C-alpha cells in the first residue's frame, strides 16, 4: 500500500481584517516592503506545451531547447507544434533525447534501458540519465539530501584587469549546521530562508497576484528577522524553508565577482538604497520571504524584500528578479538583485548583480522532532492565518470526517477536558478569538476600546452544515450557511460559505496531487471590520459582510520516492468534457494508454446510424411542452417509453423503483429476462455462412430523454445523459492487477448518472474482424447494443451494432468488471432516435458510493463461453458472487 502510515494535520485560520496598516504591523515591525517586481508574463503557449510534455514525463529543461528550435523552424508558428496534441514536439524531443543518448553511449556511461521498454518509459530513462550526466558535480542543493547537512558549493572569483577571473575560494558550506562548523568552513555568512505563503485576497474578484518573499536569517548575527510563523498554502506547501548563499556576478551574468578587498564591504555583503547612499546600507540578512511560490505559473510573480527599517530610508528601487526558476526542480532557483542606481564605496560595484542561490527543502526533509507546530502569518490582503500542524500515525482505516463531526468532537472534548460549558462556546469562536488575539497582541491594542469581546461575537457567522445530499442534488436553495461541497478534487472536500454566493457548483481546488502530502484543514474566515477604530478587532457592524469558508483537504502521504514515481495527468479528456478527469498511477510505471478521448459516440464505417427528425413521431417527442417536463403534472409523451412516468427525479437521479428493476433484470441468472434472435447477428459475425444458435440477449428497460424536437427547455429534468459527465472522476491504476480503473472523487447517491459508454460505433462484423486482426492486443471490453434485437426480425449487419472504445472512447473505457454486485448498472437511453438499433448506454450508481471507491459494472460475461468474440480475462473482481470459476479456484488454492 502506498499510503505512509503518517499524517499531518494543518489547521489554519484566516481572519481578513481589510485593514492594510493594521496587517503590516501585525506581520512584523521590522518589515518594510521594498518593491514589487513583476516578471514579464510568459507566453501561455509555452506553459501549455511544458505542461503537456510534463504529462509525458519530459521536464521543462528538456522541452525548452527543443521547443525553441521548433519555433525557429516553424517561424514562430505555434499551430504546427500544437497540432495533434504536440505530436511534432514529442517527436522532436524523442529525437533529441536519442541523440543525447547516443552521445552518452559513446562513453558507456548510461545503462541501456531494456529493449522492450515502452518508448515513453525508455525516453524517461534516457532523460533521467541525461540529467544525471549533465550535472555530475552540480553544486545546486540536492532535494534528496537531508536538511541537516545540505552541502553547497560556493566559489568566489575575482575579475582581473586582463578580463580573466581568479578563483579565490572554493568552499563547501554546510547550511543549517551549527554555527561554529559553518564558520570554520567558510567566512561567508549563511542564511536560513523561510518560504511563506499567504492565501490571496479572494474577495477582490480579480486574479490575485502571486507574491514571492524571501526570508533570510543571518545566523552569524543571531538576529532573527523572520516574520512570526510560517503559513503555507496548498500551492506551495511542499516548500517550507530554503537556504540562500549570496554570490556576486558581473553584468554578463558570468561567475562570481567580489571586490579585491573584502574588507571594503560590510560582511555580510551589503546592498545600497537609492538616493542618499552614504547611510543606506541594508544587510543581506534583510528579511525576505517567499509568498505563494507557484511553480506552475510565474506570471504575476512579485518579489518583496523586507529590510531593516532602521537602515532603510525608502524602499529599494532596484530590481530583483527571479532567475533560473526551473519548473521541474523547485529545489533550486536563484534570485538576482541588480543595483542600478547606487554608487559609493559600500555599494555593489555599478551594474553588478548579486545573486542568491536558493534551495528549497520539503516539509518531509525538514521535519522536526516535535509532533506539532503552530504558525501564524498575515498578509498584505489583511488575512491572519493560524496553522497548527499536527503529525501523528495515520490509522489504516482513516477516512476524512465531516466538518460537523469534527466540530462536535472538538466541542465535546473541550467540554469534557477543559470544562468549558459556556453557552455559545464553539470551536469556530475559539479559532476566531485566537486570530483576533493575534492581531490584538501584534498591534499592541486590546479589545476594550469601546468594543467588548462579546460585541465581537454579536454578529457571529453561524455555520449551518447542509446535508451532502442536498448539495448533490444541487437543487436546494441555499440561504446562509456552509455548503459541504460534494466535489472532491484529488482528495479535497471543500466547505464553502454560501452566505452571499448563489448556489453554484463550488470551485474546485486545483491541487497538484504531488503536493498532497498531508491532511490539512483550513478554516478561512473573512470579515469586514469596523472602521470606528482601526485598532479595533471586533467584527464590524450589521452592514459589514462576513463570509466563512472551510476547506478540508485529505491528502495521501507520499514519500519522496513515491512522489518521483507517481504519474499524473490533469485531464485525460483534453477539455472535451464539462470537467477535468485526471489520471494517476501510484502503482507501477504504466503510462496513460494510447487512445483518442471522444465525449460522444462516432461511427466507424458501416454502422447505420442516422438521426432523422422525420423519424421522430409526435408520440416520440413532446413538441407542445415548455419549461421543465419533470415539473409538469401530467407526464409528457417522452415518459411513454417508461410506462407514462419519468425515470428521472429532479437532479438527474434515476427513480429507485426503475433502478431496482434494471438491476434485477441484469443480475441473478434465474431472473434474467432473455430473448433469442431468429438469426443472431453475433453468431453470424463469427461465421458468415453458419449462423449459430442465439445464446440469448438481455431484455432491458429503456429511458427516453427529451431532445431537439421537444418543446421543453435545455435544462429540462428529462435530459441527463445528453448533458454529459457532471461528477468528479479519476482514472487510477488499480492495485489488484486489473489495470486502470475509474473511481469517483466525491460521494455519490444511489441512481446518479456517471457517464455513458462512448466508443466507435461498429457493426458486429467489423468488431469480429478487428478482434481477429488484433489478437493478443489489449482490448477494452466492447459493448453490444443488442437491447432491441428481438423486435425487428432478422437484422442486417449494419443494424447490429456495438461500441468499441479501444481506439476512440471516453472515461467509461476504464470501468472494470465486477460480478453481480457492481456499483454501476448500464441502462439504454434513447436520445436522438426512436430507432433502438442505436442508443446510448449510460451508467448509473446502484447504491450510494463513497468518494474514492472504484466504479465497476457487470460486463455480463459468461466466463465459460469460450466462443465469445472477446476473450474473457481472468476475473479479479473480488466479489463474493464472482462467476469466474477458474479465478475462484486459484484464489482458493492460494488461500
Ligand atoms: C474496459 S477495460 C477496463 C480498463 C482496463 N482495466 C484498462 O487498464 O484499460 C476491460 C479490461 O480490463 C481488465 N479487467 C476489467 N475488469 C477486470 C476484472 N474484474 N479482473 C481482471 N481484469 C479486469 C481486463 O483486461 C479487461 O479486458
From TrEMBL:
<feature type="compositionally biased region" description="Low complexity">
    <location>
        <begin position="197"/>
        <end position="206"/>
    </location>
</feature>
<feature type="domain" description="SET">
    <location>
        <begin position="727"/>
        <end position="860"/>
    </location>
</feature>
<dbReference type="InterPro" id="IPR018848">
    <property type="entry name" value="WIYLD_domain"/>
</dbReference>
<dbReference type="InterPro" id="IPR043017">
    <property type="entry name" value="WIYLD_dom_sf"/>
</dbReference>
<keyword id="KW-0808">Transferase</keyword>
<dbReference type="InterPro" id="IPR046341">
    <property type="entry name" value="SET_dom_sf"/>
</dbReference>
<keyword id="KW-0862">Zinc</keyword>
<keyword id="KW-0479">Metal-binding</keyword>
<dbReference type="GO" id="GO:0005694">
    <property type="term" value="C:chromosome"/>
</dbReference>
<dbReference type="InterPro" id="IPR001214">
    <property type="entry name" value="SET_dom"/>
</dbReference>
<dbReference type="InterPro" id="IPR007728">
    <property type="entry name" value="Pre-SET_dom"/>
</dbReference>
<protein>
    <submittedName>
        <fullName>Probable inactive histone-lysine N-methyltransferase SUVR2 isoform X1</fullName>
    </submittedName>
</protein>
<dbReference type="GO" id="GO:0042054">
    <property type="term" value="F:histone methyltransferase activity"/>
</dbReference>
<dbReference type="Pfam" id="PF10440">
    <property type="entry name" value="WIYLD"/>
</dbReference>
<feature type="compositionally biased region" description="Polar residues">
    <location>
        <begin position="126"/>
        <end position="143"/>
    </location>
</feature>
<dbReference type="InterPro" id="IPR025776">
    <property type="entry name" value="SUVR4/1/2"/>
</dbReference>
<feature type="region of interest" description="Disordered">
    <location>
        <begin position="104"/>
        <end position="147"/>
    </location>
</feature>
<dbReference type="Pfam" id="PF00856">
    <property type="entry name" value="SET"/>
</dbReference>
<dbReference type="GO" id="GO:0008270">
    <property type="term" value="F:zinc ion binding"/>
</dbReference>
<dbReference type="GO" id="GO:0005634">
    <property type="term" value="C:nucleus"/>
</dbReference>
<dbReference type="Pfam" id="PF05033">
    <property type="entry name" value="Pre-SET"/>
</dbReference>
<feature type="region of interest" description="Disordered">
    <location>
        <begin position="194"/>
        <end position="232"/>
    </location>
</feature>
<keyword id="KW-0158">Chromosome</keyword>
<keyword id="KW-0539">Nucleus</keyword>
Amino acid at each position: 500500500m502506498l499510503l505512509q502510515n503518517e499524517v499531518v494535520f494543518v489547521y489554519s485560520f484566516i481572519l481578513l481584517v481589510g485593514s492594510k496598516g493594521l496587517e503590516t504591523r501585525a506581520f512584523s515591525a521590522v518589515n518594510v516592503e521594498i518593491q514589487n517586481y513583476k516578471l514579464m508574463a510568459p507566453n501561455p503557449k509555452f506553459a501549455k506545451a511544458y505542461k503537456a510534455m510534463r504529462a509525458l514525463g519530459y521536464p521543462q529543461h528538456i522541452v525548452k531547447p527543443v521547443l525553441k528550435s521548433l519555433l525557429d523552424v516553424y517561424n514562430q508558428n505555434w499551430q504546427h507544434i500544437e497540432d495533434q496534441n504536440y505530436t511534432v514536439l514529442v517527436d522532436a524531443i524523442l529525437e533529441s533525447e536519442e541523440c543525447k543518448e547516443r552521445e552518452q553511449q559513446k562513453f558507456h556511461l548510461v545503462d541501456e534501458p531494456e529493449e522492450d521498454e515502452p518508448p515513453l518509459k525508455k525516453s524517461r530513462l534516457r532523460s533521467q540519465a541525461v540529467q544525471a550526466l549533465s550535472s555530475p558535480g552540480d553544486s545546486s542543493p540536492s532535494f534528496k539530501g537531508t536538511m541537516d547537512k545540505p552541502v553547497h558549493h560556493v566559489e568566489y572569483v575575482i575579475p582581473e584587469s586582463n578580463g580573466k577571473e581568479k578563483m579565490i575560494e572554493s568552499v563547501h558550506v554546510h547550511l543549517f549546521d551549527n554555527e561554529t562548523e559553518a564558520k570554520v568552513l567558510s567566512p561567508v555568512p549563511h542564511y536560513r530562508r523561510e518560504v511563506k505563503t499567504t492565501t490571496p485576497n479572494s474577495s477582490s474578484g480579480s486574479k490575485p497576484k502571486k507574491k514571492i518573499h524571501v526570508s533570510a536569517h543571518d545566523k552569524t548575527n543571531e538576529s532573527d528577522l523572520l516574520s512570526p510563523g510560517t503559513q503555507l498554502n496548498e500551492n506551495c506547501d511542499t516548500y517550507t524553508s530554503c537556504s540562500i548563499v549570496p554570490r556576486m556576478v558581473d553584468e554578463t551574468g558570468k561567475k562570481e565577482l567580489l571586490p579585491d578587498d573584502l574588507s571594503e564591504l560590510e560582511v555580510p555583503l551589503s546592498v545600497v538604497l537609492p538616493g542618499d547612499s552614504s547611510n543606506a546600507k541594508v544587510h543581506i540578512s534583510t528579511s525576505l520571504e517567499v509568498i505563494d511560490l507557484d511553480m506552475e505559473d510565474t506570471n504575476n510573480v512579485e518579489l518583496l524584500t523586507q529590510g531593516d527599517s532602521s537602515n532603510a530610508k525608502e524602499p529599494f528601487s532596484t530590481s530583483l528578479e527571479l532567475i533560473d526558476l526551473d519548473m521541474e526542480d523547485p529545489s533550486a532557483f536563484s534570485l538576482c538583485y541588480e543595483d542600478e542606481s547606487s554608487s559609493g564605496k559600500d555599494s555593489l560595484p555599478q551594474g553588478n548583480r548579486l545573486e542568491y542561490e536558493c534551495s528549497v527543502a520539503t516539509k518531509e526533509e525538514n521535519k522536526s522532532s516535535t509532533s506539532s507546530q503552530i504558525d501564524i502569518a498575515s498578509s498584505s490582503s489583511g488575512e491572519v492565518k493560524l496553522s497548527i500542524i499536527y503529525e501523528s500515525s495515520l490509522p489504516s482505516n482513516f477516512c476524512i470526517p465531516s466538518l460537523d463531526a469534527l466540530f462536535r468532537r472538538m466541542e465535546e472534548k473541550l467540554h469534557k477536558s477543559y470544562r468549558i460549558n459556556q453557552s455559545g462556546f464553539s470551536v469556530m469562536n475559539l479559532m476566531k478569538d485566537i486570530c483576533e488575539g493575534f492581531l490584538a497582541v501584534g498591534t499592541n491594542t486590546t479589545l476594550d476600546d469601546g468594543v467588548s469581546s462579546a460585541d465581537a461575537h454579536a454578529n457571529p457567522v453561524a455555520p449551518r452544515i447542509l446535508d451532502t445530499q442536498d448539495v448533490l442534488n444541487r437543487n436546494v436553495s441555499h440561504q446562509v450557511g456552509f455548503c459541504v461541497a460534494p466535489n472532491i478534487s484529488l482528495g479535497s472536500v471543500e466547505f464553502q460559505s454560501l452566505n452571499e454566493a448563489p448556489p453554484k457548483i463550488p470551485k474546485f481546488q486545483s491541487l497538484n496531487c504531488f503536493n498532497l502530502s498531508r491532511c490539512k484543514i483550513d478554516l478561512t474566515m473573512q470579515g469586514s471590520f469596523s472602521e470606528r477604530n482601526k485598532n479595533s478587532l471586533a467584527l464590524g457592524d450589521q452592514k459589514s459582510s462576513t463570509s466563512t469558508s472551510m476547506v478540508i483537504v485529505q491528502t495521501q502521504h507520499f514519500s519522496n520516492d513515491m512522489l518521483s514515481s507517481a504519474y499524473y495527468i490533469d485531464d485525460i479528456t483534453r477539455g472535451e468534457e464539462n470537467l477535468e478527469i485526471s489520471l494517476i498511477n501510484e502503482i507501477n510505471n504504466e503510462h496513460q494508454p494510447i487512445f483518442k478521448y471522444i465525449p460522444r459516440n462516432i461511427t466507424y464505417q458501416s454502422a447505420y446510424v442516422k438521426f432523422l427528425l422525420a423519424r421522430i413521431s409526435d408520440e416520440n417527442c413532446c413538441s407542445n411542452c415548455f419549461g421543465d417536463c419533470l415539473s409538469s403534472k401530467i407526464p409528457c409523451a417522452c415518459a411513454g417509453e417508461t410506462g407514462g412516468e419519468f425515470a428521472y427525479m429532479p437532479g438527474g437521479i434515476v427513480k429507485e423503483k426503475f433502478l431496482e428493476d434494471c438491476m434485477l433484470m441484469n443480475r441473478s441468472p434465474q431472473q434474467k429476462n432473455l430473448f433469442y434472435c431468429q438469426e443472431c447477428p453475433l453468431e453470424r459475425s463469427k461465421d458468415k455462412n453458419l449462423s449459430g444458435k442465439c445464446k440469448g440477449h438481455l431484455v432491458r428497460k429503456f429511458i427516453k430523454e427529451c431532445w431537439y424536437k421537444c418543446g421543453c427547455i435545455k435544462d429540462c429534468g428529462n435530459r441527463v445523459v445528453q448533458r454529459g459527465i457532471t461528477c468528479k472522476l479519476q482514472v487510477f491504476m488499480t492495485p489488484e492487477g486489473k489495470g486502470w480503473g475509474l473511481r469517483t472523487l466525491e460521494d455519490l447517491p444511489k441512481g446518479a448518472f456517471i457517464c455513458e459508454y462512448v466508443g466507435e460505433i461498429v457493426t458486429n462484423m467489423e468488431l469480429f474482424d478487428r478482434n481477429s486482426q488484433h489478437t493478443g492486443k489489449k482490448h477494452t471490453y466492447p459493448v453490444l447494443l443488442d437491447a432491441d434485437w428481438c423486435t425487428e426480425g432478422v437484422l442486417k449487419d449494419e443494424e447490429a451494432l456495438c461500441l468499441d472504445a479501444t481506439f476512440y472512447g471516453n472515461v467509461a473505457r476504464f470501468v472494470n468488471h465486477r460480478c453481480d454486485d457492481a456499483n454501476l448498472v448500464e441502462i439504454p437511453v434513447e436520445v436522438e432516435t426512436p430507432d433502438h438499433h442505436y442508443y446510448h448506454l449510460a451508467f448509473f450508481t446502484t447504491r450510494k458510493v463513497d468518494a474514492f471507491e472504484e466504479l465497476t459494472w457487470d460486463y455480463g460475461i459468461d466466463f465459460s463461453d469460450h466462443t465469445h468474440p472477446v476473450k474473457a480475462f481472468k476475473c479479479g473482481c473480488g466479489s463474493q458472487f464472482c462467476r469466474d470459476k477458474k479465478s475462484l479456484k486459484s484464489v482458493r488454492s492460494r488461500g
